[in-house]
Structures are given as structure tokens and as C-alpha cells.
Write a structure and sequence with these properties.
Elements lengths: L2 E2 L1 H18 L3 E6 L6 H8 L11 E2 L5 E4 L5 E5 L8 H20 L9 E7 L7 H14 L6 E6 L4 H12 L7 E4 L5 E4 L2 E3 L4 H11 L2 H10 L4 H22 L13 H15 L5 H12 L6 E2 H9 L15 H23 L11 H16 L20
Parallel strand pairs: 2-5, 2-6, 6-7, 7-8
Antiparallel strand pairs: 1-11, 3-4, 4-5, 9-10
This protein binds guanosine-5'-diphosphate (GDP) and magnesium ion.
Length: 396
């Protein structure tokens, strides 16, 4: 009899995760907009890693700075000192920005191109100033044939009324942009007892996802943090595929330690989900999750003992008679494992649970319970739930 070894499984999940991360194509986002409108604040709340805080960035030109992190598939091109002065200054600035955009396109490499441009205008400026208008018109003219999507972000939308008015006045210009999106990237403290809640970043993120090149979507889902919905949607698709594959082969999942036929697929599934949520999990945290869901306490457990306990929970699974299980049970186990794991990731992403909690008794109990709850659901032989109540994992 073989044994379920959480440390070994965690190690293999981390290896698969490394591979996933290395295969991710780097996404490039350019920020335009005057100094002080909230570009850095926007970026820091839209993306998982606070790139703009890690330093002053690498100056690319006089106007543009490039922010990136080693082994991380996101680059931000920021224009931190953008001031719209007289005509000459505007033209000078445009030349620099456009040259940088062309450079990416001319390289012929997807990974060097700018994939999305966020043009930021502050709602606190109330109206669309002439020089702003002029700048953006000239920029969009130049950008016409590049097909790079441009979103106008109305930042600092502390007053929704101001934001709406500014939006209308920009709309009246009939600019060639994808959309105009008002946001408040961070809560705004109006006075001691009035806080205006941040809003709009989830919508912005979901819009960006729609308009970026297909080749960048996987990276974007991972590096953005504003829409948990984007992450969980993709994660559920990963689980569905793994469960369907398990159902089709009828192979035996992890806890059935007599055979490891399915282990690589489940490992890949858990690694993909971890990549989607972009959490830095230590080996011990991943081991804690796999132990709490698949195992019981202790470093190793006997496969079959744990399994017959788990099987009792699956509707219609029967027993491990002769060590044979059906494809639908394999699918159910895979789906339940994946969904319980997603539930944990969502809670961590929302800040309702910390990575540290995973190793506490309460955390372990929670994980074990969510796995068992997921097992109890009725499923077809692709692991799909037969009930419509999808609210078990804390998703909106
Ligand atoms: N509360 C709050 N403050 C913001 C927001 N956006 C910008 N700010 C503030 O406005 C100032 C300028 O923002 P910053 O991101 O540095 O602008 P940048 O020069 O365009 O990068 C900073 O003090 C920010 O804290 C927001 O969404 N909420
Ligand atoms: Mg800045």
C-alpha cells in the first residue's frame, strides 16, 4: 500500500506552479495622464503586486518609466511627470509616448507590445480642459492604426456626480476610445465619520480582460486583483476540465493510494488554481491544504482508510469494493478537491483568511469541512453539480 504524503504533493504542486508562471507571457500596460490624477494609486489597487511602490522604475525616455519585477509577467509604463504645458511641450511628450508604442509594435513580438492603455483623467478637475482635449485627440489620432485599446479612466471619483458630468463631457467629444470608466481606487476619507467606498475597479478589470489580446488573458487574470469573479470563473473552468478528464478515464484520484494514475492531473489542477490567484504560498501552506482536505492529521495517512470515509459522503458512490471506483466518483472527488481549494483561495484573496490561518486548527477544520461539503453535492460523471445552488464557496 502506498501513502499519501502532503509534503511530496506540495512539492510537486510548487514545481507545476513554477512551470505555469514561467510560461505566462508578460503583459504590458501603459498609463497616461497628468501628475497627481491617481495613476499610481490606480495601478497599485488594480494589480496584485505593488509594482509602482518598489522603486522609481527604470527611465525609458524623459517622460516614461518602466516598472517591472523579476520573474513577474507584468510591466507598467508610467508617465509620472506628465504635465500638459504649452503646444510645444504637448507635442514633445506625444512624440516620446508614440515612439515607445511604435517601438513595441515594430519589434514584432507580442511580449514587447503595449496591450492596453489607461488614460487617466481626474474627476476632481470637473471639466475636460482644453489642453487635455488637445493632448488626447492628438494621441488617439496617432494611435488609430495601432489598434491598441485605450480606456479613459475617470480617477478620484469621490463625487459620483462630478464623475458623471466629466464622463458626459468626454463622451461629447466622440473620441475613439473603448470606454470611459469612473473609479475610486481607494476608500476616501471625507471627514472623521464619512468614508467614501472605493468602487469601479472590478468593472475596469473585467473590461480590460475583454479587450486585451487573447494571448494575454491568462496572465491578466492572474496579475489583476480587482475582480475575484474573473479569477474564480477561470478557476472553475480548470476544475471542470480536470473533473471531466477524471470522469472519462475513470482513473483513481489521489486518496486512492493504490494507483497514482490521476495524480499528475490533480497536481496540475491545483497548480493552475494557485497561479490564477497569484498567492505566494509556501510549501507548508500547500501541504496544510492538501492534508486538511484529503488527509487527516499526521504527516502520512493510509490511502484506503481515509478514502472509505470520504466515499461515504459522495451520493451514490458505494464502497471501495475491490478497490474499483467509477468514473463519476473520480470526477466527484476531483471536482470537490478543486472547489474546496478555490473556496480557500477566494477567502485569502478577499482578506477573510490569511495564509497563516491554514496551519491553525480552525483553518484545518474549515478546509476539511469545505471539502466534505463539496463531496456531498450530487454530480454527474463530469463532476458537474446537479443542483443550482452555487454559493457554497463564498463567491458573489
Ligand atoms: N483616497 C483616494 N486617494 C487617491 C485616489 N487616487 C489618488 N489619490 C490620492 O491622490 C494623490 C495622487 O495620487 P497618485 O496615485 O500619486 O497620482 P499620480 O501622480 O497620477 O501617480 C495621492 O495622495 C493619492 O493618495 C483614490 O482613488 N482614493
Ligand atoms: Mg505616480
Amino acid at each position: 500500500m502506498e501513502y499519501f504524503n502532503p509534503a511530496d504533493i506540495a512539492e510537486r504542486i510548487l514545481e507545476a506552479l513554477d512551470k505555469e508562471r514561467q510560461e505566462m507571457k508578460t503583459m504590458n500596460v501603459m498609463l497616461l495622464g497628468k501628475t497627481g490624477v491617481g495613476k499610481s494609486t490606480l495601478i497599485n489597487n488594480l494589480f496584485n503586486k505593488r509594482l509602482a511602490e518598489t522603486g522609481i522604475g527604470r527611465p525609458v525616455t524623459q517622460e516614461i518609466r518602466q516598472y517591472s519585477k523579476e520573474n513577474y509577467p507584468l510591466t507598467i509604463y508610467d508617465t509620472p511627470g506628465l504635465e500638459l504645458g504649452g503646444d510645444n511641450a504637448i507635442e514633445q511628450l506625444l512624440k516620446g509616448v508614440n515612439a515607445e508604442i511604435r517601438k513595441g509594435i515594430n519589434s514584432g513580438k507580442m511580449e514587447k507590445a503595449i496591450h492596453c492603455i489607461l488614460y487617466c483623467v481626474s474627476a476632481t478637475s470637473h471639466r475636460f480642459e482644453e489642453e487635455e482635449k488637445k493632448f488626447i485627440r492628438m494621441f488617439l489620432d496617432e494611435n488609430r492604426d495601432t489598434n491598441i485599446p485605450v480606456i479613459i479612466v475617470i480617477t478620484q471619483s469621490i463625487s459620483k456626480k462630478d464623475a458623471k458630468e466629466l464622463k458626459s463631457s468626454i463622451e461629447a467629444e466622440n473620441l475613439n476610445v473603448t470606454q470611459i470608466v469612473p473609479v475610486l481606487a481607494e476608500d476616501y476619507e471625507l471627514d472623521e465619520d464619512t468614508v467614501i467606498k472605493a468602487f469601479g475597479l472590478d468593472r475596469l478589470s473585467e473590461l480590460m480582460y475583454e479587450i486585451i489580446p487573447d494571448a494575454m488573458k491568462k496572465t491578466f487574470i492572474s496579475v489583476q486583483k480587482a475582480s475575484i469573479r474573473l479569477k474564480s470563473g477561470k478557476a472553475h473552468a480548470v476544475v471542470a476540465a480536470a473533473a471531466a478528464a477524471a470522469g472519462a478515464t475513470g482513473a483513481i484520484p489521489i486518496p486512492f493510494a493504490d494507483s497514482f494514475a490521476l495524480v499528475p492531473e490533480q497536481i496540475a489542477m491545483l497548480a493552475s488554481i494557485t497561479a490564477i490567484f497569484d498567492l505566494s504560498l509556501e510549501k507548508s501552506a500547500i501541504a496544510a491544504i492538501t492534508t486538511a482536505t484529503l488527509g487527516t492529521a499526521g504527516a502520512t495517512i493510509a490511502g484506503k482508510t481515509a478514502v472509505s470515509g470520504l466515499l461515504k459522503l459522495i451520493p451514490g458512490a458505494g464502497s471501495v469494493a475491490g478497490g474499483v471506483i467509477s468514473g463519476s466518483v473520480a470526477a466527484a472527488l476531483t471536482a470537490a478537491l478543486g472547489e474546496a481549494y478555490i473556496g480557500i483561495m477566494i477567502r485569502i484573496a478577499k482578506g477573510e483568511m490569511s495564509v497563516k490561518d491554514l496551519s491553525t486548527d480552525e483553518g484545518k477544520r474549515f478546509m476539511s469541512e469545505s471539502f466534505k461539503n463539496a463531496l456531498r453535492l450530487r454530480r454527474n460523471n463530469k463532476g458537474e453539480r446537479l443542483d443550482k445552488d452555487k454559493d457554497k464557496n463564498g463567491e458573489e
